[in-house]
Amino acid sequence: MRTKNNRSHSQMPEINLIPMLDVLMTVLTFFIIVSMTLTGEQIFNVSLPTGQSEEDKQAEAKQAKLTIGLDKDGKTVMDNQPAVEQAVVQRVQKFLSENPEGIVTLKADKGLKYENVLGLLRTLRDLGGDRVFLAIEKG
Predict the structure, then answer these.
(1) DSSP 1
(2) Under DSSP, is residue 96 helix (H, G, I), strand (E, B) or coil?
(3) 135: closest CA among 114, 106, 102, 115?
(4) Is the model's pTM score more than 0.70?
(5) Whose CA is closest to 124, among 75, 89, 83?
(6) 108 near 115, Cβ under 8 Å?
(7) Do 9 and 2 touch, CB atoms closer than 8 A?
(8) Residue 121: which residues within 8 A CB-CB, separation 6 or more?
(9) For a FRET experiment, which of 5, 20, 58, 129 has its CA 20 to 30 Å from that of 73?
(10) Which comes out higher in pLDDT, residue 36 or 66?
(11) Which domain of life is it from (predicted)?
(12) Torsions phi, psi of 134, nearest 5?
């Protein structure tokens, strides 16, 4: 016959947490390393363009450019002089007809509201289509 005495002498089972934590840390480390390597990988078979070659840089330097600006007050600037929209339109039309490979760049002050920039950008796009660019600052 068993008594309560036998139960008191038996030890409570212990769970050793150290090996379990080792396994968890190993799995966590694995996932961190995998996630770091995947951020630099190409996704969906998309190959990104590399930097420009010397030939591309030389061709771009030879390409005719026209730069139009919007100052912090929203006024149009061309050749460092204030200009009205009609004069800009005429100049861009003339430039694009004389330079079939030329590009038009719009440089707008970063303090302007996007609606102000978008109005002139639409006008330029209507004139030059895919040869009109909005300049941004790198960095």
Answers:
(1) -
(2) helix
(3) 106
(4) no
(5) 89
(6) no
(7) no
(8) 106, 132, 134
(9) 129
(10) 66
(11) Bacteria
(12) -105, 120
